[in-house]
Specification:
The protein has ten helices and twelve strands. By secondary structure, the protein is an alpha/beta fold. Helix 3 links the parallel strand 6 and strand 7. The two termini are about 20 Å apart. Bound molecules: 6-hydroxymethylpterin-diphosphate.
Length: about 325
């Protein structure tokens, strides 16, 4: 069977149960509706076909992001970086508020001032790459959409600002719903799960249902396990290992592991900008499980790695 109409296949399914050991069963034993969710080709996302892994390049227009904070705060630097990234990325994700552990909140005015003019300038300059706005706030998202953004990427999965879901529904734009446990300021204080993979799955399932109830079509929703958002290094590793489970939600999956702390932990790379190789390794691990989109700082390097991974595995040209 083909996984999500993509480039991976399977002939068995692992059944996970909170109260029993995992067991492998042949596809013939899998209920029809579960199999349909796992196999159905995903609709295009923001006009992108999901028949191969897509790259989302990160552009943080912030003074304090954990990895690229302060580097692209001036409009000139942001524009240069976005144009450079567009050579390798399918989507450019623009954010004006750091959500790193312990980050402080930014006002709507400041976040809008950082992001909307950059998006407008990119569009005025003729850039056609899909742009997502990385925000939890409806006013910031609205200004970004007016300026030419195509996608809303919300690390709170529409849980922070009650007006953001209705805005997404009204505008008919695609949205990324990311799982997070707790608010950025405190989320790394002793995060706990009974079973991290199943807890995140169930939480995302509820978020997708809530979004649908607001009138957001499932075909416009992508899900993201939220690496590093209220998770220990072990939690992150368990989520990356079990990524293919999330295909059961019937939505495209986005994975954002780039340069995060667990890459430093397992990769023995203290400085965030020394974590590119480990980030590429995790992006390839995602591609191997059929993850349709990976969010990265190092777009050119990840693109090269994905091209080779694709060619070696016999992917279509
Ligand atoms: N991670 C960050 C921000 N936005 N969005 C999605 N969908 N998935 C993620 O994993 C994700 C995200 C945090 O990383 P970064 O933007 O590099 O840092 P900061 O929040 O410090 O700006």
């Amino acid at each position: 069977m083909t996984l999500a109409g993509g480039w991976c296949w399977f002939d068995r399914v692992e059944v996970l149960d909170r109260n029993a050991a995992p067991r492998l069963v042949p596809v013939a034993e899998v209920p029809g509706e579960v199999l349909a969710r796992l196999t159905a080709p995903r609709p295009d996302f923001a006009g992108l076909r999901l028949d191969r892994p897509r790259l989302m390049g990160i552009l943080n227009v912030t003074p304090d992001s954990f990895s690229d904070g302060g580097k692209f705060l001036s409009a000139d630097h942001a524009l240069t970086q976005a144009r450079e990234m567009a050579k390798a990325a399918d989507i450019i994700d623009i954010g004006g508020e750091s959500t790193r552990p312990g980050a402080v909140d930014v006002s709507v005015e400041e976040e809008t001032r950082r992001t909307a003019p950059v998006i407008a300038a990119l569009r005025a300059g003729g850039l056609q790459t899909v742009i997502s706005i990385d925000t939890r706030k409806s006013a910031v998202a609205e200004a970004a959409l007016r300026a030419g953004a195509d996608v809303v990427n919300d690390v709170s999965a529409l849980g922070f600002d009650a007006d953001l879901g209705p805005l997404v529904a009204r505008e008919g734009v695609p949205v990324v719903l990311m799982h997070a446990q707790g608010a950025p300021a405190t989320m790394q204080d002793n995060p706990r799960y009974s079973d991290v993979l199943l807890d995140v799955y169930d939480a995302l399932e509820a978020k997708v249902a809530a979004a649908e109830a607001l009138g957001i079509a499932r075909s416009r929703i992508a899900v993201d396990p939220g690496i590093g958002f209220g998770k220990t290094a072990e939690h992150n590793l368990a989520l990356v290992r079990g990524l293919s489970l999330f295909h059961g939600l019937g939505c495209p999956i986005l994975l954002g592991a780039s340069r995060k702390r667990f890459i430093g932990t397992y990769g023995q790379a203290e400085a965030p900008d020394a974590r590119m190789p480990g980030s590429v390794a995790v992006a390839l691990a995602g591609a191997a499980q059929g993850v349709q989109m990976v969010r990265v700082h190092d777009a050119a390097e990840t693109r090269q790695a994905l091209r080779l991974w694709w060619a070696v595995n016999g992917g279509a040209a």
